[in-house]
Design brief:
It is found in: Cell membrane. The protein has about 475 residues and is mostly helical. It folds into two domains: about 20-105, no CATH class; about 115-200 and about 230-465, no CATH class. It has 17 helices and two strands. It has helices at about 25-35, 40-55, 65-75, 80-125, 125-155, 160-175, 180-195, 230-255, 260-270, 280-295, 300-310, 320-330, 335-365, 365-370, 375-405, 425-440, 445-465; strands spanning about 405-410, 415-420. A two-stranded antiparallel ribbon has the order 1-2. Helix 6 packs across helix 15. The longest helix has about 45 residues, at about 80-125. It is globular.
């Protein structure tokens, strides 16, 4: 550890309120930029990077304070890793720090996925690119299955929580219940279950600190105290910034000759407030709407977009940028398709991530009041259990449209099913999926490494077909 990595805390410890910049803003900006380039591997990897840099290495924030912030962010809709960055940035440098930390956290991924989306639109129909996607799409199935296993092992600590997960899966898979209804029902079920059986095992262990005292200790208070005036200001400014771009494109929709911008702006603004449980949970909802309702993507393209998002830094929910890009490119109105695609991509990115700043900066001063709120904790536990069923539904959706060429829809009363046509199964896709599952579960490979191997297998299959 260098002298630049740790500054001695003020005399008397860190229990007093923190005010102004705990560390120089320029130094914090450099640290957040370095973190943003390492945020691969989903929220677990992203949180681990922040833990290492901010808690273990630089000693800017205490371990229990870091976990307290994480628990609060888990209560919110949206990507918890980015919200954790906003929260800790706010702790260290106030509102400016939160804006810088949250913005830098997503910037590399926005740029990377914008480029990859353009490449997909320009070259996605070529045999070579198709072969690469034929390899990575089965890998995505394995990644989502692993997410079901990982989240389920952590979340389903009581038979009642297992029942909530199964109920969420059945509601989505068999009855087509809207995703927000499933989230709300899971929260209510978790709350009711906790009142009946007590503790559901949702607590977390804080763990101790090793090394010099952190600059923001576990019991330090922030100088920005909650007030009605501050809260009103944050809400008004946040809502204006959130919806102003959507209002502008809605007013221009007639002259642009397309409503795709309005549809995407409103849809993804709504999706931003129901993304409890991480990106995998809401992707089932996004995939169903983008494919079946709006027609922005073909069924198999959602899997390809997720594969691209897995290869970029930042939150996985960035896949919505790909959805917007492709959808607007195909429905540009009077605009050039490339201009429409870029505008839609940036608009959807804006309405997806601006709410994160609003939620965190509004609620952060009140977070201590939430710490011991058992009702909220129980509702969150129920949502987390429901998310297991939601992710399992996503795995089924991706499997149907990757492993088979044809599916058929069956409806009988309230039951609505999409069933496989078994004689259209793809042996190459099945084989690559098996390899991906083995690498992730048996060898413990990361998603990025698994995607690379499967892309190579898809390419090798293509080359072998040319040789024959």
């Amino acid at each position: 550890m260098t002298a630049a990595d740790h500054t001695e805390p003020p005399a008397g410890g860190g229990a007093h309120p923190t005010g102004g910049d705990v560390i120089p803003l320029r130094e914090a900006t450099r640290a957040w930029f370095a973190i943003s380039l390492q945020t691969f591997g989903g929220p677990a990897g992203q949180i681990a990077v922040m833990q290492h840099k901010l808690v273990d290495e630089k000693r800017w924030i205490g371990q229990r304070r870091f976990l307290h912030a994480l628990n609060y962010c888990m209560l919110l809709p949206g990507p918890e890793a980015q919200q954790l960055a906003i929260y800790t940035g706010w702790l260290l440098n106030g509102v400016r720090g939160g804006l810088i930390a949250g913005g830098l956290f997503v910037l590399p991924g926005v740029v990377a996925l914008l480029v990859l989306s353009g490449i997909y639109v320009a070259y996605g129909e070529t045999d070579l690119v198709a072969a690469l996607f034929a390899g990575v799409a089965p890998a995505v199935i394995a990644i989502v299955v692993h997410a079901v296993y990982r989240v389920g092992r952590r979340a389903l600590r009581h038979p009642g929580l297992v029942a909530i997960a199964v109920g969420a899966f059945a509601a989505l898979t068999l009855f087509g219940v809207p995703f927000p209804v499933v989230v709300f029902a899971s929260a209510v079920a978790g709350w009711l279950l906790s009142r009946r059986v007590g503790d559901l095992g949702g607590g977390s262990s804080d763990g101790g600190d090793d090394g010099p005292a952190p600059l923001v200790s576990d019991d330090a208070l922030h100088h920005e105290l909650p007030s009605a005036r501050r809260s009103l200001g944050v809400v008004v400014l946040g809502l204006v910034l959130w919806f102003a771009p959507v209002a502008v494109v809605a007013l221009l929709a007639g002259s642009l000759g397309t409503s795709v911008f309005t549809d995407q702006g409103l849809f993804f603004s709504g999706a931003a407030v129901v993304t409890f449980g991480g990106a995998y949970a809401v992707l089932a909802y996004v995939a169903q709407q983008a494919v079946s309702v709006y027609g922005w993507l073909a069924p198999g393209e959602m899997v390809r977009g997720l594969a691209l998002a897995e290869t970029t830094p930042g939150p996985l929910i960035m896949v919505v940028q790909f959805v917007a890009f492709v959808g607007a490119y195909r429905n540009p109105g009077v605009l050039d398709p490339w201009v429409a695609a870029v505008l839609a991509s940036l608009l959807v990115t804006w309405v997806t991530f601006v709410p994160c700043f609003l939620f965190v900066l509004l609620g952060a001063p009140y977070v201590e009041r939430l710490r011991s709120n058992t009702h909220l904790s129980a509702a969150l536990t129920g949502i987390t259990a429901g998310v297991v069923g939601v992710i399992a539904n996503l795995a089924v959706f991706f499997s149907l449209h990757t492993l088979l060429d044809v599916t058929r829809k069956v409806q009988s009363g309230p039951v609505r099913l999409e069933l496989p046509v078994l004689d259209t199964w793809d042996p190459v896709a099945f084989g690559i999926t098996g390899v991906a599952l083995a690498m992730i579960f048996w060898r413990g490979w990361s998603p990025l490494r698994t995607l690379g191997l499967c892309a190579a297998l898809g390419l090798a299959t293509f080359v072998a077909s040319l040789i024959r």
